[in-house]
From TrEMBL:
Highest rank taxon of the organism: Eukaryota
Record's protein name: MORN repeat protein
Organism: Paramecium sonneborni
Keywords associated with the record: Repeat
Lineage of origin: Eukaryota, Sar, Alveolata, Ciliophora, Intramacronucleata
Length: 287
């Protein structure tokens, strides 16, 4: 289970001239689909008309390779509402300012659609970004980066709602897997980092500290059968001091190493108290 293929969280304790437009996506190791920007956008500074330079007008201009702009101009620059069609079927329609995409607009290509607010050819403001049925993002962008509150949906049914910073999940957020497992808490660099609550679909949950998608630090793990652990974790394993409770009032309190009793500990079982030194889950010396 995980946000991406690299996640480490376990579900149990064993737990040329003018060319066609290119919409680039700047990828991260965790997800792979984040930032978007257009390249090969034609400019026409050399194009001029005999009409008044600052009179708003509507005209069509054909570039090389069947690229056509149809819309409003001011002087020799695209200003106002216009549509730019590339020869491969891709197009942008919306607002222009000083020969750049600026304002509300829609960019459509074979596999993706970007609709929202732009500023000087960059996404700025509220944007909907969709790649076929694989991926969808709705939320805020700044300088071509996801920034602020947004929602990501993935083709497997999982989704994330929360904060982004420079294209990655960062800050408070909620991630829900397609099996119903849910995480609420802090993110950093697209990973579970900081305080959070992770609830499995079977009713078990962990509340505490995370580090790079691992249970790491102080936390409490509650199993759906009544067992509970309170203590320290180290990369998903119980390590250091912790308390383990069974449903039948049996209890171990002491030190752990890699999920096993290791070091000084006290086991309470059947009204008997066994205190001593443990090694890999076995009692070596007792008092």
């Amino acid at each position: 289970m995980g946000i991406c293929q690299t996640t480490q969280i376990k579900k149990d304790d064993n737990l040329q001239n003018l060319q066609a437009p290119i919409l680039y996506t700047k990828k991260s190791p965790q997800l792979g689909m984040h930032n978007a920007y257009i390249e090969n956008l034609p400019f026409i500074d050399e194009f001029s008309h005999e009409q008044e330079q600052w009179k708003v007008r509507r005209a069509q201009h054909r570039y090389n390779n069947d690229i056509i702009y149809n819309g409003q101009w001011m002087g020799n620059k695209r200003n106002g509402i216009g549509r730019l069609d590339w020869g491969d079927g891709s197009y942008y329609e919306g607002n222009w300012k000083n020969d750049q995409i600026d304002g509300n607009g829609r960019f459509v290509s074979k596999n993706f659609v970007v609709e929202g607010q732009w500023q000087t050819n960059k996404l700025n403001g509220y944007v909907i970004y969709k790649i076929d049925d694989i991926y969808k993002y709705e939320g805020y962008w700044q300088e071509d980066c996801k920034q602020g509150i947004g929602k990501e949906q993935y083709d497997d049914g999982s989704h994330y709602i929360g904060n982004f910073n420079q294209n990655v999940k960062s800050g408070i957020g909620i991630y829900i897997w397609n099996d119903g497992t849910k995480y609420e808490g802090m993110f950093q660099m697209d990973l579970l980092n900081g305080q959070g609550l992770l609830k499995w679909s079977n009713g078990s949950y962990y509340q505490g500290e995370f580090l790079n998608n691992y249970l790491h630090g102080q936390g409490c793990f509650q199993w759906n059968d009544g067992r509970k652990y309170e203590g320290n974790y180290l990369y998903d394993y119980k390590n250091g001091y912790g308390k383990y409770f069974w449903e039948n009032d049996q209890k171990y309190e002491g030190f752990w190493k890699n999920d096993k009793w290791n070091g000084h500990g006290i086991l309470t079982k059947n009204n008997q108290v066994i205190e001593g030194e443990w090694n890999q889950g076995k009692l070596e010396t007792n008092k």
